[in-house]
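Thread: "does anyone have the structure for this chain?"

Original post by V.I.:
We have the sequence but no experimental structure in hand. Need at least a predicted one for the grant figures.
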Amino acid sequence: MSPAPVALTCGEPSGIGPELAEAAWRVLGTEVPFFYLGDPAHLPGEVPHVVINIPDAARSRAKEGLPVLPHAFAGPRSPGTPQAAQAQAVIDVIARAVDLAQAGRAGAVCTLPIHKQALQDGAGFAFPGHTEYLCHLADADEVVMMLASDQLRVVPATIHIPLAQVPAALTPDLLRDRIRITHDALVRQFGLTAPRLAVAGLNPHAGEGGKIGREEIEVIVPVLDALRAEGMALVGPMSADTMFHAAARAHYDAAICMYHDQALIPIKTLDFDRGVNVTLGLPFIRTSPDHGTAFDIAGTGRANPESTIHALRMAWRLASGTA
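Reply from O.Q.:
Generated one for you, tokens below.
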């Protein structure tokens, strides 16, 4: 049986989200069954849209226009300028999409960018970001951020913290959990029966046997040895400067990196516009484009929809078991 359509949440309406939704439908048409969850009045109107009352109607109505499951907002869209009165509706749309996914009425959730400060100022949003809110809504123990494209999948063990704090944050428990969640998701969502994971070192040359740091010896190697004993196919710790060229990438399915830029620089260099954020560890599929609200170009028609298009495609492939 084909999965339910993908729910595309509107994100911050004063950003580029509404433009990206229309541009995505223009390219995808009926290729990926999806519906926009937001206020139809916020759409720029560059393409036709059709209001639907149930998610499944997106299948039959997509040939007519962008299917929209309406969610009322207070007031019109104001490109580039968030409206405090609209903040709660942005939050409510995310929660509504999660409800639809958990009820099986949406096959996956693809989220357009939000602006954390706008939500905090306008509605007292109490979460560090989008992903943490989704984790709360799903009552998940822990989630992991993966950036994925057709060329590379990367998972940063630590994310948005100062580089100076990475060595202390990189505990055996944290690294073990990141690897296990990634391995499980590659099996369960990506359909890989025996995932191969490459694990980067923290220090240059993976520490050079302790000459350039001891984190590899004291933290990373013991974790990898214990997980190998459980049957996982792990390589590392590897020197990060030699693990992302084409020949190296052919030998693993995903790379576990120790900090944010170690993971994101290679994928953004290889495939800047096609990188997709996939949240691992949730009981439903969630993808998102790998960029922000872009207030500076909102309403100008200059937003690049490539990442959104690929996020929708990946959500559908994961939901269909064809990733």
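V.I.: this helps a lot. The domain at 143-278 is CATH 3.40.718.10 (Isopropylmalate Dehydrogenase).
O.Q.: and The longest strand covers residues 233-238.
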